Amino acid sequence: MSWLYNCIRSLQSHILYPYVKKMVTVLIDILNYEDTELQDFNINILSMYAQIIYPQSMVEQLINQLLDTIRTTTSWHIKMRILPILQLFFFKHLFYISSEMKDNIIKLLADTLQDSRIEVRQLANETLSGIIRCSSRESIEQLKDYFEGLLKEKLPKKSKNDTIKDLKAKPEYNRILIKRHAGVLGLSSLVQAFPYEIPKWLPEVLCSIALCINNPSPIHVSIHIT
Fold first, then answer.
1. Which of 66, 82, 125, 133 has CA 20 to 30 A from 76's CA?
2. Which has the closest alpha carbon to 88: 56, 127, 145, 55?
3. At what angle are helices 99-112 and 140-150 packed, to 10 degrees?
4. Is residue 195 predicted with pLDDT exceeding 90?
């Protein structure tokens, strides 16, 4: 790993091109190790790997590798570590990425907003906001409609015989809570993507978010942050 680190830092990093995909597979596997020092070093290498300028022919292959990892891994820790790498890679190679690939990235991140771990959902929200900012404005309306659609399913109400604790223990309640939280986070990512302008859709999005203000945590917390 020290050799790899030094090679990436050197002016000869292009010699790694033929081996990058296999090396990233190994580096992602190392994310499962419990050695803290090794993990820190590994993350540093992955961050540096994402900032190498690759030939256009390689860029989308490497992005797909990161997307597949986020999509298939069962470890929320790995998702938390790969999402920032994806964002770094995206911004470094922005002008090499096709509109179709940008849409694929956005779709994956929108799906990740419904992850069972709140930490993953929040990080996916931050990542999505940055990527929307650099993507086609034409997709905004579709995203807005999709995220507002997630808010249509209402949370179950507490019955007379149930306590709040009983209600929150029900799988159906938690499924809808996560779904609604994803909707709020998604709309929030649209708002945060345009900090210096007021697009025509913004007032409607803010109204949709505001209607959820009385929803339980973590939804109302995300609204206050927005």
1. 133
2. 127
3. 20
4. no
